[in-house]
Structures are given as C-alpha cells and as structure tokens.
Design goal:
By secondary structure, the chain is α+β, with helices and mostly antiparallel strands. 28% of the residues lie in helices and 35% in strands. It comes from Sphingoaurantiacus capsulatus.
Length: 140
C-alpha cells in the first residue's frame, strides 16, 4: 500500500476543526472519516507518522505538520462501529502555507493521490512529495 513512507496529508475544514484548534487542544481524535479508502489509510498509519494539515474549503492550503500519536481505534462518532479514528498531535506550523494552486502548479506533485482522489480527507504522500511540499513552505 502507498503511504509506507509514513507521510500523509489530512484535510479539515477550518470552520470545523482548524490547525489552531489542534494546537489549542494539544491532541485530537481524527474521526468522522466515512470513506472506505480513507479508513484504510487511517488503519495503515503508525505512531510517529507525519501528516501535513490541509485546510479544505477555506484557505485551500497546507498550514502545519502533525504526528500520529495513537494508531487506529474504533471511531466513537460511528454508530455502526465500522470506521476507525487515529489520534494526532500538532507538530509545527509551516513557515509559509502551501496553497492548492501552488501544489497543482508544481510538476513534481502532478501524481499526488490528493489530485486523483480529491474528495478523500486522508491521502498518502511519497517521500519526494513530502520533501517538495516542505521545500515550498520554506520559500513562501
């Protein structure tokens, strides 16, 4: 399965749960994921895996780096008990947010899973995709 690099991108609408909310809380359950493919990605995550935190719907940009602090467990928001959650902790805010437009314009990112399965809230990244986005965040 892809994502074996231990690098991921997770999406959240900032009006529902923003990067600042994660920083304030110190840790959260990444729950409410109701897509089978995204749930498989959650199950593949390991403690210490790094996640780019992407603001969807508003902002449309990667704003920070979080880490997985607890592997998959039953999602308490799922009444049928079919889906899982992971716990995540904030790492660091990026020097400069990396916009969706900038990522789409970067040839090194043309094959990103995020662009193939845009509706997924959790997608794996290759080591090179991770490095590219991180380098973009340093340039501003």
């Amino acid at each position: 399965m892809s994502g074996t690099s231990g690098k991921w991108l997770v999406k959240s609408e900032p009006v529902k749960y923003s990067w600042d909310d994660l920083v304030r809380d110190g840790e959260t359950a990444w729950d409410g994921v109701r897509n089978n493919q995204a749930a498989l990605y959650l199950k593949a995550m390991k403690v210490g895996d790094e996640l780019f935190y992407y603001h969807s719907n508003e902002g449309l940009e990667v704003v920070g780096i979080a880490t997985v602090s607890k592997t998959a467990y039953p999602d308490t928001t799922d009444p049928k008990g079919r889906f899982v959650a992971v716990s995540v902790k904030p790492g660091k805010k990026l020097d400069h947010p990396v916009t969706l437009a900038a990522m789409k314009a970067e040839p090194k990112l043309k094959d990103m899973a995020m662009f193939r399965q845009f509706r997924l809230s959790v997608v794996p990244l290759t080591a090179n995709e991770w490095k590219t986005i991180l380098a973009m965040s340093k340039k501003g």
